[in-house]
User: What shape does this take?
Amino acid sequence: MNNWRKVKLDTVADIKLSNVDKKTTEGEKPIRLCNYTDVYKYSFINREKSQDFMVATCNDNEYEKFLLKKGQVAITKDSEKRNDIGIPTFIAEDFDDVVLGYHLALITPYPYKLDGAFLHFWLNTEYGKKYFENNASGSGQRLTLTLDIIKSIPLYLPDLPTQKSIAKVLSDLDAKIELNNKINRELEAMAKTLYDYWFVQFDFPYSPPLEGCPQDGVGIGKPYKSSGGKMVYNAELKREIPDGWEVKTLLNIATYTNGLACQKYRPTNEEYLPVIKIREMRDGFTEGTEKVKVNIPERLIVNNGDVLFSWSASLEVMIWTGGKGGLNQHIFKVTSKMYPRSFYYFQLIWYLQHFKMIAELRKTTMGHITQDHLKQSRIVVPPLDIVKDLDKKLKPIQEKQILISRQNQHLTTLRDWLLPMLMNGQVRVKEAEERLNMAAEPSVEYKTKIKV
Assistant: This one.
């Protein structure tokens, strides 16, 4: 870093504060608006992500100033929290209809002085975050970054080729993580489609027994309901279900174990388990994660592959892949000795929509699910042999998702370690590339075609 030069941002880039609102005004140019939440959510913006942006309009001057172009960086400039200010996203493609919205700043690097991807990663360093946190102004519930503050952020820059090389290493890691996330979303959608086809639409593969043959042909043949399989009316559900299927509760098919109160299990030595709270469910373990003794009851220990359900404050269900930890009291660990994981996982996900629908009708926040709520639930339960037939298809999908999630955690750890090291010159690009190549081995071939 000895030969890196210190500059202010406005000497190597143009900075503008957007004033484009969400209104649709007749006679103005129709556009899609990149809003605050889009910048906050995505580390980069491309055409695929922009498909969900809201529709709005802007005048010609706004269009010319805030149309998104490849190489730019957008940041959040207003927030209620200091650590939500200055969040950057990189504009990865040129657009002809996407404009940056209000409460955001658009940074356009001068092409022969600053690489936009390098700037994006620089702003993600602890140094960049702290600069914005410490220099945000305002009072009450609204904090903001003034134009002068953004212009004055100090950067340490190597030459342009080195900027591009550093940015490429980190971008390659982000691309691998993004690809894995996309694969996992496709796998999750595929698994849910199979589950819905079998246990919601009741079109599991079925062949009627041949005359004189007592055994049926579940698992092969035509779709059950669509092919005229026998359906019976269930008075409790007020709808038809396949003949021989039962109505049970979520508690009938799985055990919901509540977590621990951390205060009772504080570690007294260097050995500890990290505690999985709602934040850890979303973001994984961090330096701020609470710790508990390693000798907590076995039922309160979470391992990779366990199903977790946050019943307080949020309603989220996930298959945990973050490593061994202790279960927090606001999360259920869901297990079953009889039914496979794929069954109780998707049954719970399906029933969450019912909980949320009740909350919407009552105009309340259904963020506190108890054992009584689970006991009052009503679900359709197939014979166990049909459940196991579907699990043969779903289990490999879920195991592949777990593997990919674990790989992403490794890649994220590597990226987060490399980011400050590359930005202060402690690690050279060549060494970082070697680590990246090692992280890519062994390569995994992902196949997403599964037969229904």
Residues 15 and 107 are 5 Å apart (CA to CA). The two ends are 56 Å apart (CA to CA). Residues 442-452 have pLDDT under 50 and may be disordered.
